[in-house]
Amino acid sequence: MKSENIFDLEYQETLQILRQKNKLKEFEYFLNLSKNKSMYLKHNKKPRVIMFSHSFPDEIVRALDADPCYVFGGSFSSSQFENVFLPKDSNDQAKSILGILKSNFFNLDKNDVVLIPYSNDNYKLIESSIKNITNVIGYDIPTGNNDLDKKRYIIEIKRVTHELSKIIKKHIYHCKLKKEFIKSKDAALAFNDLEDLYNNNQSSALSLSGYVFVMNTYYMSKNKKDWTNHVIKLTNELKIIQKTVENPKDFVALAGSPIYPPNYKILFELEELNINVKKVFHKDNEYILMFKQYSDSINFNKLAELYLSHNMEENSIEKLSNNNNFKGIIFHIVKGESQFAYNYNKIANKLNNLGLPVIKIETVYDYEDIEQIRLRLEAFSEMLREKLE
User: Fold this and answer.
1) How many angstroms separate the Cα of 45 from the Cα of each of 4, 65, 145, 157, 346?
2) Which end of the chain has less Cβ packing within 10 Å, N or C?
3) Which of 199, 219, 307, 198 is nearest to 261 (CA)?
4) Band (48; pLDDT cuts 50, 70, 90)
């Protein structure tokens, strides 16, 4: 069976499980967004700007009348794609991204533009693999968040925008940029309501995997306003069928490497073991929610600073430590993603000093490690029960 067919099968199986776990009318909209790999394919005559990082504002891409197309990986079959030539020690996400880009169904060509952050060596190898096929723009991401880092990042974003404008032959206008910013802010406010509802309800018709999936689809939608309206409808549907918990139960948080379909095995295992995960720290919700606190007044520099200033995971986890119902963290790392391993060490030290447990679960994209994951999660769950007794 061809790798593209296996990729299809992976997605369809994951979507079917999600459908069974989330029997909600509005949830079908989000399932349809990812059905048949539609988020990767060319839908119209707009230029396709391909990104595999949240580090460049998609508001700029949309303001240039282009289609942002996010490729985050997540597939075991695409990480085994026969034309991938990354080193064996490369992380599965990078292999999966390159496998998708070079597959026949994706149809990468000279009309596309790929934006590549120089955040790790794997991404630089991806650039060398595709630069003869399509347009590639690389850019640096500052490691800090001081004034000098902000200035450097603003310069990089302006440079990338200029090069992007030249390739797709469009100019960026402030009125269009502001309009896209407002759409992002509306999406952030809508998703914040959904997140609050999920976190404050004990028995939810929206499962953990379903909640993460809705979060993932923010980057699958071609129409952000449409996505926002369906999030509002889903939230309203949930409000009708469930009640806020007066005495919330103990819960744990899930943090670390982002989880993308079809690689939902850790989410499904958490659900099978009835581990109550009520806070999820994920790159998707970090970037969605960053817009909610800003006014409608926006300019190019402010937008660039906004994308640099995120640090939701560490700050929010620190605030959680004041919640008596918060009992620990499951920190998920896709093997090889060293940046998340660094974050784990910082967070683990903080929580251990507070007497709160943190377990690190390292995964790969195949299912060979599923028994080990299950055993470690079972042991963590048992430890939590013993502490409560």
Assistant:
1) 24, 10, 38, 25, 46
2) C
3) 219
4) very high
CA distance 210 to 277: 12
Give pTM, 2 decimals. 0.93
Predicted pLDDT at 125: 87
The predicted pLDDT at position 357 comes to 87
Q: Let me know: does 149 contact 122? Beta carbons within 8 Å.
A: no
Q: Which two tokens stand for residue 199?
A: 């976190």
pLDDT tens track for 288-314: 988 887 776 777 888 887 887 655 566
Structure tokens of 130? 């595709």
> pLDDT tens digit string along 127-161?
988 999 999 999 998 877 778 888 889 999 999 99
Q: Structure tokens of 382? A: 């048992």
Could you tell me which of 35, 102, 45 has the C-alpha nearest to residue 71? 102
Q: In what order do the strands lie in the sheet with 251-256?
A: 277-280, 251-256, 326-334, 358-363
- Exposure pattern of 299-309 as b/e (b: 16+ CB <10 Å)? ebeebbbbbbe
Amino acid in the structure at residue 244? T
